[in-house]
Design brief:
Oligomer: heterodimer
Structural class of chain B: mainly beta
Largest sheet of chain A: 7 strands, mixed
Structural class of chain A: mainly beta
Number of strands of chain B: 11
Largest sheet of chain B: 7 strands, mixed
Distance between the termini of chain B: 40 Å
Radius of gyration of chain A: 13 Å
């Protein structure tokens, strides 16, 4: 099973600040890494697919990078509505897995 | 419009069984793999398993934590996927979501249904 680790676990950020969340896979997964945002009492929402591909309707301040084992989600100029938990997910091999999540709080 | 609606959650005793349903609409259900993901309260997301389409022999796959206890099935005539959960444990308590790869990975999710395993 491919294990995904995320850092940090929690981040408290002021609006307009830049946020960087990393996701590391226990073995190479190519670009089969996706990012989701989940706000309280809501279902997850896809933000970035295949490491760096943007999703229609998702604000351009969200971007992704990386390949192999190391990946990054960047939120440029954080907005109050971005307060949420962020999860990475790999679809390279079964069983599919998720990272433990990073909670972003607004100061 | 793609819609996924889970149902069937509730309170069940340890060792008991429960069957969840995921009713789908707005897309070609028969051609789509259906996945189940769960989330314990205050915890992260955990992939539970998936069932592929008839063209892919209805192949199933499961997380190690549920293998042998949970079974995913589907009825293409009813556009519905199912999650049969047996030998339930307290650690199976969670919100259970169904989700699909429509145009993109897990781009559509249901609202979730709560399963509570407690005596």
């Amino acid at each position: 099973e491919i294990v995904l680790t995320q850092s940090p676990d929690f981040q408290s950020v002021t609006p307009k600040e830049k946020v960087t969340i990393t996701c590391r896979a226990s073995q190479s997964i190519g670009s089969s890494l996706h990012w989701y945002q989940q706000k309280p009492d809501q279902s997850p929402k896809l933000l970035i697919k295949y490491a760096s591909q943007s999703i229609s309707g998702v604000p351009s301040r969200f971007s992704g990078s990386g390949s192999g084992t190391d990946f990054t989600l960047t939120i440029n100029s954080l907005e109050a509505e971005d307060a949420a938990a962020y999860y990475c997910h790999q679809s390279s091999s079964l069983p599919f897995t998720f990272g433990p999540g990073t909670k972003v709080d607004i100061k | 419009e793609v819609q996924l609606v889970e149902s069937g959650g509730g309170l069940v005793q340890p060792g008991g069984s429960l069957k969840l349903s995921c009713a789908a609409s707005g897309f070609t259900f028969s051609g789509s793999a259906m996945h189940w993901v769960r989330q314990a309260s205050g915890k992260g997301l955990e992939w539970v398993g998936r069932i592929r389409s008839k063209a892919n022999s209805y192949a199933t796959a499961y997380a190690a934590s549920v293998k042998g206890r949970f079974t995913i099935s589907r009825d293409d005539s009813k556009n519905t996927a199912y999650l049969q959960m047996n030998s339930l444990k307290t650690e199976d308590t969670a919100v259970y979501y169904c989700t699909i790869n429509w145009n993109d990975p897990f781009d559509y999710w249901g609202q979730g249904t709560l399963v509570t395993v407690s005596s």
